[in-house]
Amino acid sequence: MTKTYSGKLLLTGEYFILDGVPGLAVPTRPGQTFTVRRGKPGRLVWRAVDHRGEEWFRGSFYPDSLQLTPAVPNPVHDRLERIFFAADELRPGTYDRITEEGYSVTTELQFDRGWGLGTSSTLIAGVAKWLAVNPYALLEKTFGGSGYDLACATAKGPIVYERAGIEPVVTPVKWKPDWLARTHFVYLNEKQDSREGIRAYRAREVPSSTQESVTALTNALISETLHLRDAQKIVKEHERIVAKTLGLSPVQAARFPDFPGQLKSLGAWGGDFIWALSDAPSDYVEKYFNDRGFGTVLTGGDLLVC
Fold it and tell me: Which of 90, 141, 190, 266 is placed for a possible disulfide with 86 were both Cys, Cβ 3.0 to 4.6 Å?
């Protein structure tokens, strides 16, 4: 079995999506390929390969043991162990079956591990499909989170995602404005810890009126007749709301005040990617960020599945 699962970008909703506020999410062209083959009975061998084709993890798992190899602690091995045991809780006997029958599993990333495009969500999607368990239930028992990234892993295009336990509402939307391919996504050279952002969000009282405003902005952005200038206004207001909620400065005001257009933070604020919407030519936008030390500048046309 070989299947590729898409990466993800959440364009609206940010932390509010944790409380059931709908958000616009889009799968990315680069993802992670998950390959399962029958192997030697009595052992499950796992290999993880990065986007350069280099192996960054190899481990083995055996039946009838809660103390698994390696002898030297390995956080990746421990994380996989927890995923297997969580799947076993959802479908008893799963762990013993896969280790006794013997399998060889290889995951191959198509994007840099530091980008935050869905290394964990594509992993959960692959394991859940292979072991025939509910992917959202498996996510709840392992990494946690809203689950929008898991929905993107198997989506064919943009979706509006609403969290609702292990049965979320995932609505495909036809969203491909003519200006989208000319926008850019810029990696800020650092992977942000989303858990820290979530803790900051949870520490604040979020009124229902704020949630309603974010919902309205998502609905406005997915309009098929939306022009770029209108999208910039929507994104600017979205940034203002999130900044006020978290007590932070919008990325444009803090780091790129002279950018000719509008910027929006994505994912955990302060790292990962930002979304740049501008009338300026693509080569100008790319040079603008390159000159400031940001070498990963991808167009929406190259990155998004729309």
Answer: 141
